[in-house]
Specification:
It is built from 9 helices and 2 strands, in the order ααααααββααα. By secondary structure, the protein is an all-alpha fold. It has 2 domains: 1-23 and 136-272, no CATH class; 25-131, no CATH class. The chain has a two-stranded antiparallel ribbon with strand order 1-2. β1 (169-171) and β2 (175-179) form a beta hairpin. α2 (24-46) packs antiparallel against α5 and α8 packs antiparallel against α9. The mean pLDDT is 91.
Length: 272
């Protein structure tokens, strides 16, 4: 499994790097595809196959609204992203009203569907807004690599520090393998990778807010990882999918990124 994990990463990484460098529509299409697959995996996790679930109509609607939000992000239309999110809320509300007589669990199910768009599509919009800025900035590619470098380094550091030095469980009921030592090692990896990247590619950024960014993005990424683990633990599912050999599903790979992306967008657009 460990070997499969590295082989998959080595095969997929050049394509990911190429599309990030390319930017524009190809990158947006990649994020849109990731959003649709992740939403499908999320639906598999949160809807109990042994009970009554939402019909295909509303699940498909969620994917359509999610993809449309990514498209709005491509054009820098943050206002349209919010309108689509609100439109999805109305769509789910109407469905719940007309289905309530035949399915009294419909409110719980529609709430899960609304959560899916906020959890997956909205943060992925932040990635598109970072890479394809609407106001002509030229540092979108650097910032996206900045974020990915921080999250990847933190993930690797947390894994290896936790494996060799971990003693105290972080959240044993959610993710038994994660330790306090691993979490601290992850933050250390975030700080180291972020500092090296900043010095090499974004030297003009001020240090104080950058260090805060490294810590907050890393911490958010760890929360995102634990949140997805909570979803899977609740449903008794080990992996969100099997699209990526050795890694599980797409959602398993981007869970940390989903929580860290809004942090990066906040710092890039408003604080740095």
């Amino acid at each position: 499994m460990h070997r499969k994990r590295w082989i998959t990463a080595l095969i997929a990484l050049p394509f990911l790097i190429g599309l990030i460098v390319k930017g524009g529509a190809p990158f947006t299409l990649l994020i849109g595809l990731a959003a649709v697959i992740s939403l499908a995996e999320y639906d598999r996790i949160v809807f109990n196959p042994g009970g009554r679930t939402l019909s295909g109509i509303i699940l498909l609607g969620g994917m359509i609204f999610g993809a449309a939000m990514i498209g709005a992000g491509h054009f820098g239309r943050t206002d349209l992203i919010l309108l689509l999110l609100a439109g999805h809320l109305v769509f789910c509300g109407l469905y719940a009203v007309f289905q309530f007589d035949i399915d009294h669990a419909i409110l719980e199910n529609t709430a899960k569907q609304i959560q899916g768009l906020v959890y997956i599509a909205l943060p992925l919009c932040a990635l598109v807004l970072i890479r394809n800025p609407a106001h002509g900035e030229t540092d979108g590619m650097a910032w996206l690599f900045f974020l990915l470098c921080i999250i990847f380094a933190g993930d690797v550091s947390a894994y290896y520090v936790g494996s060799y030095l971990g003693r105290n469980k972080l959240c044993p009921r959610v993710s038994p393998g994660k330790t306090v030592e691993g979490a601290v090692g992850g933050i250390a990896g975030n700080l180291l990778a972020g500092s090296l990247f900043k010095m090499a590619f974004l030297p003009d950024l001020p240090w104080a807010p950058c260090v805060l960014f490294f810590v907050l993005a890393g911490a958010a990424g760890q929360v995102g990882d634990l949140f997805e683990s909570t979803l899977k633990r609740t449903s008794g599912i080990k992996d969100s999918g099997s699209v990526l050999p050795g890694h599980g599903g797409v959602l398993d790979r981007i869970d940390a990124l989903l929580f860290a992306a809004p942090v990066a967008y906040l710092f890039k657009v408003h604080l740095l």
